[in-house]
Design a protein that fits this description.
single chain, Endonuclease, Chain A, 2 domains, two-stranded parallel sheet
Amino acid sequence: MRRFLVLFIFSTVTFLFYTTLCAQTSDAVMMQHLRDRGIKVYDGNSVKLLKTGHDKFVDLFEAVREAKSFIHLEYFNFRNDSIAGLLFHLLAQKVKEGVEVRALYDAFGNSSNNKPISRQMHDSICSLGIQLVKFDPIRFPWVNHIIPRDHRKIVIIDGRIAYTGGMNVADYYIEGIPEIGPWHDMHMRVEGPVVNELHAIFCRMWTDETGEYLSGEKYFPTHHQSGDQLRLAIVDRHPPHSSDAIRDLFAEMLNTAQHKVLLISPYFVPTHKVRKALKNAIDRGVDVQILLSAKSDIPLTPEASHYVGNNLAKRGANVFLFHGGFHHTKIMMVDDLYCTIGSSNMDARSLRCDYEVNAVIFSKKVTAELTQLFNDQLKTSTRMEKGYWKTRSIGKQFQGWLGNLLTPFL
């Protein structure tokens, strides 16, 4: 009798626990999950989505012109072209006005683009009073510097305005690339208390590279809540201290989704944990919609992405191939309630190796804006139908199989 009573109580408690969990909305579950991990959710922020390269650079340049105290930039790369030239020219003008300018860029990110900043150009920029620092310079033995790399994109202006997202500094965000067409990406401007969280990420990297410690009210001013009152959290991947942070974020978003997941990812070869969460969401009946680019700027990656997408489509996901250029966008929307925008791709390099940062935005309005963007992109996309993979050439099929096999290294 006692054993039966214990079993009854345990079953009742378990039932009530799962009933309560299911009664919670997915955004509430995610907010609690972030807090349990020690990630603060900030109230009273405002967000402006910058959906094109033109929008990003117009907004950023205007904010730079109005800077009064300091401008801090952290990018994977500054491509040596006209946009970067205009930006450094403007930053040099601000230095003359007494504004402090600190800029950090990744050494591998610089050398991997086809128009890198040369040593001479680097020194020339520094001579203008801009404190330009290269993260982890690549020296012999070069293999030691392959990972981790700083893939973040962060700008902080006067401690009041922050920018983050998926865009580096390059002309192709506006002009596109002849081989693949227009280059699509997403960035955001943030104001409010969460700005200090993004700035702390920059300052930590700056201290690690230069030894200069930045603190105090000048760099971390007190913020008053904005009229928008949006809730935001910043998820930072800083190896080795928070190595699973963004991998865990993506998996938890998928695991707690109740109705719908929309995502766009340029290099879609998810790690095991994220792939398992995608499959579980599909099996639960969640409407999982994935937008992949038909073309890519990196060899092998599109075929690997299509291989994974095809397998998920056979399982029940709605997978679409975008033909209007290349989508470098990295966004996910859940249940029309909240979303994430950031620098992290859904591949092993972002989720297991590099320094990355993603913003989680708890706003139906912002999520609806991204959902509208997703739906607009479907107009120049085709659905990955049953039998799609068999229409690929033997060579493309092999590349897809090989790329999937190499998922831990992509």
